[in-house]
Design a protein that fits this description.
1 helix, mainly beta, two-stranded antiparallel ribbon, 10 strands, globular
């Protein structure tokens, strides 16, 4: 079984930043992506990053883009948390955007080449209708279960 991990390392008004990797016996290439989510806002639907924890990750469709993607399921009080292409946290309504790197776009912190990163993630999870995602915090002072 393959599992997805996000280890967050920073949060602030420009977003919540992390690194994503996939583990499992079928993963032959090392895949490491960057992620951006909205800042922590007490798990408010459409406004906050996802609380730390383990959740089902289910294949579905992104309604705005009409492309396949994964949804983080089972988050208390939340639904519709999709992985989709975006560069800035302000483009996300409680969702997660992957990028091949982190940088500055138009003067603001961003993930880079998000569409390419999303495709790499989909390729690494090809053939899986569902898996598990584990979201953690690297920094102990922000690593709380309700963060």
């Amino acid at each position: 079984m393959r599992t997805v991990h996000i280890e967050r390392y920073e949060t602030g008004e420009d977003g919540t930043w992390g690194r994503l990797w996939i583990e499992g016996p079928d993963v032959t290439d090392s895949l490491c992506l960057h992620t951006v989510e909205p800042p922590w806002k007490d798990n408010l639907p459409g406004l906050s990053c996802v609380p730390a924890g383990g959740y089902p990750l289910v294949l579905g469709m992104f309604h705005r883009g009409g492309y396949p993607t994964y949804e983080v399921d089972g988050v208390p009080g939340r639904d519709g948390i999709k992985f989709h292409a975006a560069n800035w946290a302000r483009e996300l309504q409680g969702c997660i955007a992957p990028g091949t790197g982190r940088g500055i776009l138009r003067g603001r912190p961003a993930v880079l080449r998000s569409r390419l990163a999303l495709q790499r993630m989909l390729d690494a999870l090809e053939g899986l209708d569902s898996t598990t995602i584990y979201i953690t915090w690297r920094t102990p002072d922000i690593a709380t279960s309700d963060r």
